[in-house]
Amino acid sequence: MLESAEPGAESGSSLLRELAHELRDALSPLASSADLARLRNFDAEASRQLAEKVERGLRRALAILDAFALGEQCENGTLQLATSRVPLGQIVASAREALGEPAGAARYRFVTAEPARVVLADPVWSARALAAVLQHAGARGAIGCLVEVRLGGTVTRPRVRVCGGIDPDNTPGEKWFVSWRAGEAGMSLRTARCLMRVQRGDLELVTGNRGEWELVMSFAGEGIQAEEPSRESPPARRAEAAGAEALAATTGETLLIVDDSREVRRAYGEALVALGYRVVEAADAEQALAVLDGGTADVALIDIHLPRMNGYRLAQAIRARVGAAIYLVMLSGMGLDAITRELAREAGFDDCLDKMSGPIALRELLAASKRNSLGNDEG
Length: 379
Prior knowledge:
Structural class: alpha/beta
Mean pLDDT: 80
Shape: globular
Number of helices: 12
Number of strands: 14
Strand content: 15-25%
Strand order of the largest sheet: 1-7-8-6-5-3
Number of domains: 3
Radius of gyration: 24 Å
CATH topology of the largest domain: Heat Shock Protein 90
Low-confidence stretches: 1-12, 226-251
CATH class of the largest domain: Alpha Beta
Distance between the termini: 62 Å
Helix content: 40-55%
CATH superfamily of the largest domain: Histidine kinase-like ATPase, C-terminal domain
């Protein structure tokens, strides 16, 4: 018979200390790669390999930062959720898609014979949490043993049971819920449990004496009264396209970069020039407004953490001066959560870009916005 695992003591691990360890682990290989490139006089092949390793290291570091920031948001109660009534099967399907788990794959077996259940949950975050549970189960389960996923529970307490076999090197226990470290799904089990509890559900580990375990994810079901709408920000909504000319993302346009970091301006500027843009730089809001007074930019890429006047206020000032004649993109140094996107929309930004995404991603964002604008015009 399966019995609930004994709760472990509160983690003595420091989030900051663990984050530092994870980032060092992700970025330290870059120094060796750079040394190798120097030893080979930065020939074409060495330079290519260095660029690839730098990109992989930076993307891994970004994913680590996002996972830890998400964990902190869950634990301090600032993560914004959009709770609704949603079929449990829909959450399972989204989690499966997020993992890239095709039907008939050998690692998981999905059993869906249970009656359809409806749960009260944020479908996006719940799917991410379940994807984290599935990814963890697949990584920690016994080699060659299928991970079985069953939908069940009651109407008031629907459940997803993720069952696996014990790997001697990964004995299940509450230690699974101690670390903020996330796997490929971008969320730790610690964060997934916290997220479920915020939604009046839970994530529990149940073990047996015959070498089996279950991660049981429970939800608030139909019999639970939905909470009154809170003051939470709604899911991020992309602002309406202001005009085809301002939205154009073709080469030859003028793009204003506003960031107090010279290195950021230089890195983005050089790449954007290579992409065919004309680039103007400003280190703060005052310089940015002076640039706009002296001429017209098609796009402004604006950092939020500027000295004296922040990026939100600068966006409002630009809208007051030139209206919709310029396309404003918020450049964020942190993860783009729903609150940040909503603040950006209210300030007058047309879109948002993670600072780590890079100039090519900016070009793609602008091109997509132009296509959407043309589609709306034709309609």
